[in-house]
## 1
Amino acid sequence: RAKTDRRGSHMIFEPAIRQELERRLTLEAELALAVERREFELFYQPQVDLSSGRVIGAEALIRWRHPTRGLVPPGDFIPVVNTSPLSEAVATWVMATACRQAREWQLAGHEIRVGINLSPSQFQSGDLAAFVSKLLTVTGVSPGLIELEVTEDILLHDEPGVLQTFNRLQALGVSLVFDDFGTGYASLSYLKKFPLDGLKIDRSFVRDVLTQADDAAIVGSTVSLSRQLNLSVIAEGIENQATADFLLALGCEHGQGYHFGKPMPAADFERRFLSADNTARQAGAA
Ligand code: C2E
Ligand code: MG
Ligand code: MG
Ligand code: MG
């Protein structure tokens, strides 16, 4: 809450607000340095086919290797990045790095689909489809191996440009999936409005699916909805074999979660999932 200074139009901020502003400015300055110093890394989390256990993809998840604070998770800095002038630089780096990685794996004989999280700013500035098109050409990766993850905060902007960008991205051959499906306000209406290729069922519905009947009903309905709309479906946040089995019984084809593997550096991902006999059992047993 800001008060008007009696002497003029200056605003005097409550200490808590000033502290929050200072914290944000410090973080923004640090993040600008981090971009320059290349302190970001992409970790990869396996996505598996629940019936065969085969690893079919990897979601790229950003980490900040801070010089003193260690590995910082995206929740601690992506919200600030996304509302700062740095968002474009970071988003560009994420996309380029993930596409290069997918190409590298493809060249090594692993047709692993790589999921990339998009941020709202990527739909506001510049031409995302043209950028993706250029990246596909430069890296040489097959468009079918790139899966762009969008959340409801992107869809709710409701600019005609978003729909047009979606159409152009799909024309390039990359796929678009609805991330954190079911957590927003109008998930179903977006399914009607936007051309999507798949859904990612949010972890909040998966976590207690074994014990909560309402979660099981929501997940089951989402799976049958996706089948009728001809969408792929993946459940996030699978932490044990019983949950994986239950989801498979509900008809869910793909899964992602700590049970199969936490997000990890690319080298670890290769060692664990892309070595000679990459099987489900390996993923589950680790
Ligand atoms: P998301 O896209 O929904 O990613 C899934 C998150 O769930 C990841 O958190 C992952 O580590 C976590 N997760 C996966 N399986 C399990 C599980 O079995 N149990 C539990 N407890 N958690 C699980 P992470 O890496 O901290 O990322 C958080 C969010 O940050 C992401 O949610 C995404 O919205 C955002 N994010 C991450 N990387 C990027 C990026 O490169 N660009 C943008 N714009 N956003 C990103
Ligand atoms: Mg995601
Ligand atoms: Mg998600
Ligand atoms: Mg999520």
## 2
Amino acid sequence: MFCFQCEEATKGTGCTTKGICGKTESIAVQHDLLVYLLKGLAVVAEEAQRQGQPDASVGPFIAQALFATITNANFDPARFNSLIQATIAKRDALKASLGYQSDRDEVSWTGSPAIYAAKGAEVGVLSQPNEDLRSLRELLVYGVKGMAAYTDHAAILGLEKPEIYAFMIKALAATTRELSIDEMTALVMECGAVGVTAMALLDEANTRAYGNPEITQVKLGVGTRPGILISGHDLKDLQDLLEQSVDSGVDIYTHSEMLPAHAYPAFKRYPHFVGNYGNAWWQQDKEFAAFNGPILMTTNCITPVKSAYRDRIYTTGMTGWPGVKHIADRPEGGAKDFSAIIAQAKTCPPPIELEQGEITTGCAHAQVMALADQVVDAVKTGAIKRFVVMGGCDGRHKERSYYTDVAQALPQDAVILTAGCAKYRFNKLDLGNIGGIPRLLDAGQCNDSYSLAFVALKLKEVFGLDDINELPISYDIAWYEQKAIIVLLALLHLGVKHIRLGPTLPAFLSPNVAKVLIETFDIKPIGRVEEDVTAMMAAA
Ligand code: FS2
Ligand code: SF4
């Protein structure tokens, strides 16, 4: 196996025997084969578009299948066998309907599950010998994976845009061709542009379904009733679970990226939606053991399941773990059936309390715009000297204490804007406020990173600036998985420069590709805390 798609790639170069994430060689090669065959499906889908017979089911299928290959989403071999078989069947049915033939291997290869591993081992990342083309292809594929996740979330809530699917097909098909470095670079930049569209669509889907997030205090302690812990990013799953557990005697707690759900008006009407439990994804083994009740993983990040809670963890959607109970998709127009989880919760003791107190969330774009006059005044008077965007992902590496240290070292006239699970490095600190404006504004999940771009663009408009980089905003982004890659590409498309990216630069950037990003966009690795804080406050 060889995988270098996330920030925790072994030794900063790639996982070759087993993933730090828990991905085994056999799952890794299934992922590789699935992605390879999705590229073949994309080639056929492009041909269908050329012939004026597009198949509208291909885009959503590709989005879901790619979502399953994101870091920490799905480790279930049976699920990948099904996805590989479904990809081949879809591709061949489309070929037959078009009368299309091709000698290309990804367009014609077929075989039984018994040979998937051997084939997957042939077609992985390292099958492209040119390291710069490999780097650009993988950067594009990982950006598209992140886009796929956002697109699937929006589709679940009933919003889709054909141009997003069309780009995903175009990008995957392009990776099967011998394009020049310049052509591949142009596609990577286009990926950022379409990424903005996908992020805006998800924002529209979330707020149309559940209202605009409002600044909200979320309890960290626990009650005396049994609980269900819901993790991941899928708000529709939360909606179904809350609705089905009304008056059940069970409380619902959020975990990790589900925390910002407390800020949506639609979820505030459930009195049994009581608080947030625990921290970012990588601490789940100890926290899930202490929770005592059932846990529902709606998306990534799931880590290797421990025996302490194996009999009370459930997956759903595109997430999975071998041997763990999986809740089936909702029927058309219906709801998922969470009755088994609710029934099990009733037999469980209440959670063990990990901490007490409250944290604040719900500072997405509408809430920040509601404070716009105050914010603009504070900038004009100098009360707010700088905004520092510290969004993205959390992870295991101890070097990520950098983000806690930066949050503490920033001067009192700096405001932190965050989204994603990176916030758990500093969202329980008492950072205070500036004239009533909290010094930490949490826009929500990584899925809500659009809010950060929206606020920046609005401020640019309000201050009448020509260049987004003239704003008093610095970017100190923490990344881990592929959704952070599409957010990064989206920011680059919007013209944002001088981004600090850490805790390490991606292993999949070859020296030449990294050089282009550094020279064009002044992307830089994180450095020492005091130096970075001083530089950011000086707009460097
Ligand atoms: Fe955090 Fe994990 Fe949100 Fe990422 S919970 S690193 O996949 O999606 O951010
Ligand atoms: Fe390694 Fe990350 Fe790939 Fe997992 S997803 S195998 S940790 S590079």
